[in-house]
Amino acid sequence: MDKTVINKIIELLDDSGHIVITTHHNPDGDAIGSSLALYHYLRKLDHNVSVIVPNDFPDFLKWMNGAGNLVIAERSPEYRQLLKNADLVFCLDYNALNRAGVLTKPLEESKAPKILIDHHPHPELEQFDYAISIIETSSTAELVYDLMISMSGTTALDKDSAEAIYVGIMTDTGSFSFACDYADTYSKVAELVRAGINPGQIHRLVYDTYSESRLRLLGYCLSEKLTILTAFDTAYIALSKEELARFNYQIGDTEGVVNYALSIKGIKVAVLLTERSKKIRLSFRSKGNFAVNDIAREHFAGGGHKNAAGGDSFVSMDETIEKLKSILLKYKDAIQRSTI
Ligand code: MN
What we know:
By secondary structure, the protein is an alpha/beta fold. The chain has 13 helices and 12 strands. A hairpin with a 4-residue loop joins strand 9 (269-275) and strand 10. The longest helix is centred in the last third of the chain and has 21 residues, at 317-337. It starts with a helix and ends with a helix. Manganese (II) ion binds next to loops.
């Protein structure tokens, strides 16, 4: 980790009365985990710190200590004042201000120095004053771990921050099934266990929390909605607004569904399409060296990681599926050549 950036962060922290931590729209386990870890750490150093997330986050992350203190911008207008008063802003787990939903504009207008900590490819570095932007890592939570350790050694960790970091690493690697080829990640996890976390319990708290309707929605997706495109080694599931409503959709309920489509032998690309109020959300997964973030970025105004990416479409579901098929046709050889 770049020593000059760390020294600059230490200097900025010394001069800052109020610090704000922000995440991307639809915050996931890594966004919430990395933010809460930094929040607990900075509070331990007696800083005045708030975490602002653009919109609500899934219930399976709400057991984490400090989760109740997060300011959800879409429902708490006081976030504007908090951002206005901020002397320093951290931007966690996103690579461009336009990923921050309702926070985008206030962040653009904010005069406070902005520090990016992130692992997404293609960061818009000119939008930030300082950056820890490392793509070869498991998660943003792991980068927050590195920052904390470089600033304070292992005494930086307490159980709350260690749990939050573990949630970020575990969820962003799909429980150590991708982006998990870095030996250092495992040494860091060992430190988290020494700091008192219980990985088995955290796994249960995050993954074994389905509501009955969420599990039935999953069953419906797998038995009724799964479509295999054999020619492209691709599987997709498309869900309309009406179908989501029928299963009493709550935020987070479709999380992980796309991974079931990818779990089929021979399938290398999986896509979940969900109809939202004004758009179709696409969630992409791939096995091995075929990069889905290129498709998300070039064709669906999105982005992400090589094996896990997302994007949006502003035409109908049928048109989106046709567009997807025509794009897959162009990538057909690359998909077939790719190794898992
Ligand atoms: Mn992440």
